[in-house]
Each structure stands twice: as C-alpha cells, then as structure tokens.
Design goal:
This protein is α+β, with helices and mostly antiparallel strands and 326 residues long. The protein has 5 helices and 18 strands. Strands 1, 2, 4, 13, 14, 15, 16 and 17 form an 8-stranded antiparallel beta sheet that branches. Strands 5-7-11-9-8-12 form a 6-stranded antiparallel barrel. It has a two-stranded antiparallel sheet with strand order 3-18.
Length: 326
C-alpha cells in the first residue's frame, strides 16, 4: 500500500505544478470528464513550433504484414526450379554436399560412356576380322546407350540443384521468401508488388516485384512460400529478416489517416494523439492504429475527419503534460 501511495503522489505532483496559477508554468493541465486538456501560453506554444494537420478519410491500398527472409536463387534467369539459399551454414553445407554428389555422378557417367565407346570399337574390329559375333557388338552398343542415359539423368538432376554454391562472378540476385498461411492466399494480390522494410528503427521501405520461385511449402505449418525479387541496388544479406507488406485486392474501404509521426505511445503501449480543440488548447485523444502505410498511420478508431492533429511537437506536448522534459 505504501508503494501505491508513493506512485500516486509521484504522478500527482507534476500535474499540480503544471496547473499552478502562479504563472511560472508554461502550460495548464485540466481534466474535463475523461479528457485531458493542455492549455499552452502563447510564447510556450510558439517555442514548441507545433504543426497541425487535419485527419483525412480516404482509400488506402489494403495490405497484410508478413515476415520475410532474404534468400538467393540458384537458378538461372527465367528458371524457377532450382532451390534458393538462405543464410544458415547448415543450409549452405547441405546444398553444397548435394551438388558435389551430383557432379560426381556426372563424372562417373562420362567415364562409363568413354569405356562403352571403347568396347563398341573393339567389338566392331573383332567382328570385322571375323573373330567375333554380332551379338557382342549389340551388347556393347546397348551398354553405351545405357551410359548415355545415365549421363542425361545425372545432368538433369544437377540442373535442378542450380548454380554451384559460392560461385564467383556477377552480382547475386536477392529474393524475399514469405511463408503465407494457405487460408490467407485468396485475400492477397499475388501479382502486385510488395513493400519491403528492414527491422531497424529508421528502416526505409523498398518495392519488390513477385517472381516465380520454386514451389515450396510447409505441410506442418500449412504455409505456402511466395517469392519477391529485390532491386539490383539492394544491400540486404542472405538470411536477413524483413517486414513484408503484401497488397490485398480490396482497397475500396475508406479509413481515417494521419501522419505516423503524430502517434504517441505510453508505457502500457496505448496509442494517443493530440487534437487542437481551441486556440492554444490541445486534448489528448486515444486512437487505435490499424496498420502503417508508408509515412501514414491508418486508424481503426480515432478523431473525426477534419480534426486538427499535432504532428511536429507532439512529443514535446507529451513531455509538457507529464513534466518529463527538461
């Protein structure tokens, strides 16, 4: 109980100082019902350099957010059969082992062909010297045909495994592999470009076009893999995780939209904005962000269309209200 009382006093003291009528505080905090109204003095408002924009209601292309992994395709241009390579060492070693085994089978088949050709020539010379039989020649030719078939099979199997791991020369193409729950496939636009963002705080988005990759899926998680090709200028590395926004066909619904830099978060994860309700007066409003679309925040709920929302200076208002600034 003593701890709860101390916390209550801690949060009450800043509000009392802010509402002091002595004229020393730059703002007055009042409570009207469940709303907190922050009234600034003109000079304080000027020093904060506040910027307000109206809440808009417009159509924003729908999109769903997924996790993606940067991979490198090992197939040649226009081929989507060969596997893709991620960033784990186990994956690299396993694929390299499969490629080495396939190369060995090709070499073995070539040796068998050379030996079969020699056998055919020998059997033919013996037959010409009337010391052999036609059957021996036919058997030698049959062995040659089998060796050639073995070589063709081995080469086809090796082609499926793609280019050698670690092959030098040329810049690698980068793809994004996205695992999508099969129940959501019908709600996504498979032909539209996706927006790719890294997971950093100052991450910038880039567009990636859909590409025909290997038909991979995971039966245990009931997911299907979609692939997107990054621009040639991308610096993302194999195995790196990214956020992927895939558009949805339905983009006819209008939503409330505000700049994302107007959104504030409290210590409990609650989302807020400051609305200008009168001259020098700002009210903190609770909102619910549906998703992020570029530099905008699409709201599930929030102030009405046309309401004036603080963008630049919103953080300073938050600090002024709770007296957390300098």
């Amino acid at each position: 109980m003593k701890t709860l009382a101390s916390l209550a006093l801690l949060f009450a003291v800043p509000a009392l100082h802010a509402a002091d009528s002595g004229g020393s505080a730059p703002a007055a905090v009042t409570k009207e019902g469940d709303l907190v109204v922050l009234t600034l003095k003109p000079d304080a408002e000027k020093s904060l350099r506040l910027k307000v924009v109206p809440v808009e209601k417009r159509r924003v292309p729908g999109a769903r957010l997924f996790s993606g992994e940067v991979v490198y395709p090992l197939a040649g241009e226009g081929s989507g059969v060969a596997p893709v390579l991620g960033g784990t060492l186990d994956e690299v070693l396993r694929l390299a082992d499969l490629q080495a085994a396939a190369d060995g089978r090709i070499l073995q088949a070539k040796v068998q062909i050379d030996a079969a050709k020699i056998a055919v020539e020998r059997a033919q010379r013996v037959l010409n010297a009337e010391a052999g039989s036609v059957r021996s020649v036919d058997e030698a030719k049959t062995a040659l045909s089998l060796a050639e078939g073995t070589l063709a099979t081995a080469q086809a199997q090796r082609a499926i495994l793609g280019d050698p791991v670690g092959k030098a020369g040329g810049k690698k193409r980068a793809w994004i592999r996205v695992a999508i729950y099969s129940g959501e496939l019908s709600s996504l636009d498979a032909k539209a470009a996706a927006s790719i963002r890294t997971l950093g705080f100052d991450a910038k988005s880039q567009s990636a076009e859909p590409v025909a990759g290997p038909p991979t899926a995971n039966a245990l998680t009931n997911t299907v893999d979609w692939y997107y090709q990054l621009p040639a200028t991308s610096t993302l590395r194999a195995g790196e995780r990214v956020a992927v926004e895939i558009p949805t066909p339905d983009s006819q619904v209008e939503h409330l939209v505000i700049p994302f830099n107007a959104v504030l978060y409290d210590i409990n994860g609650g989302q807020w904005v400051y609305e200008q309700t009168a001259d020098h007066a700002y009210t903190r409003r609770r909102i619910q962000v549906l998703r992020i679309a570029g530099a905008d925040a699409v709201l599930a709920s929030g102030p009405a269309t046309g309401s004036k929302i603080v963008t630049d200076g919103a953080t300073e208002l938050f600090g002024t209200e709770f007296m957390t600034g300098k």
